[in-house]
Write a structure and sequence with these properties.
There is one protein chain. The chain contains 10 helices and 5 strands; from the N terminus they run E-H-E-H-E-H-E-H-E-H-H-H-H-H-H. By secondary structure, it is an alpha/beta fold. The chain has 2 domains: 121 residues, Rossmann fold, CATH 3.40.50.2300; 70 residues, Winged helix-like DNA-binding domain superfamily/Winged helix DNA-binding domain (Arc Repressor Mutant, subunit A, Orthogonal Bundle). The longest helix has 19 residues. The protein is elongated. The two termini are 22 Å apart.
Length: 200
């Protein structure tokens, strides 16, 4: 199952950069540079997460957009260059799943997206994994947990191999064993389980 993300960012270069990064890492991403474009996209399809800048140089800012137009159960992650207390307090009213300050690391973005979606699914509609009675019986080795943590950060098999100083073939074997043990169908389910089990 594909993960659909809506990016609302008025700086087109930043929006394109985020979209490219997400698509490179296996996500489906739609880009809007104004609230009007974002509203049209929300009317046409559903999204697993909204990634929105707060200051949109528009009559509607990202916080108002999230309050008025984002479906209640869709997690929101705010992006902003401003970290003043007033902005943070206003953003809190929307109860966003995360708040990323620009500039942010691409790995941090992926981890935030994955955890936000996993937490949202677990909170609203627990996955078959989290409600599975055999959930308690699932155990991973220390090395497998290391691999899961790096997967959650959006690392590729080659990057995981480099970080853990093992071969890509060994990483592939670990990934296969993790899927067999957890019976997760995708990365989001795996991260939801990892959150539930305290691996992340």
């Amino acid at each position: 199952m594909e993960t659909n993300i809506l990016i609302l960012e008025d700086e087109i270069i930043i929006a394109k950069s985020i979209k490219l990064h997400l698509e490179t890492n296996g996500y489906c991403a739609e880009m809007a540079t104004s609230p009007e474009e974002a509203i049209q996209l929300l009317e046409q399809q559903s999204f697993d997460l909204i990634l929105s800048d707060i200051n949109l140089r528009h009559t509607i800012d990202g916080i108002s957009f999230a309050q008025q137009f984002v479906p209640e159960r869709t997690p929101v992650v705010f992006l902003t260059a401003y970290s003043d207390l007033q902005t943070l307090q206003k953003a809190e009213l929307v109860m966003p799943y995360a708040y990323l300050l620009k500039p942010f690391h691409k790995e941090q973005l992926l981890l935030t997206i994955n955890l936000s979606i996993a937490h949202a699914r677990k909170k609203v509609l627990p996955s078959s994994i989290s409600t599975n009675s055999s959930n308690e019986d699932i155990t991973l080795s220390t090395r497998e947990v290391d691999v899961v943590r790096l997967i959650a950060q959006g690392k590729t098999t080659i990057e995981v191999a480099d970080i853990l100083c093992i071969s890509p073939q060994t990483v592939a074997t670990h990934r296969k064993k993790i899927i067999q043990k957890t019976k997760c169908k995708n990365v989001v389910e795996l991260i939801a389980l990892a959150v539930d089990k305290g691996w992340l």
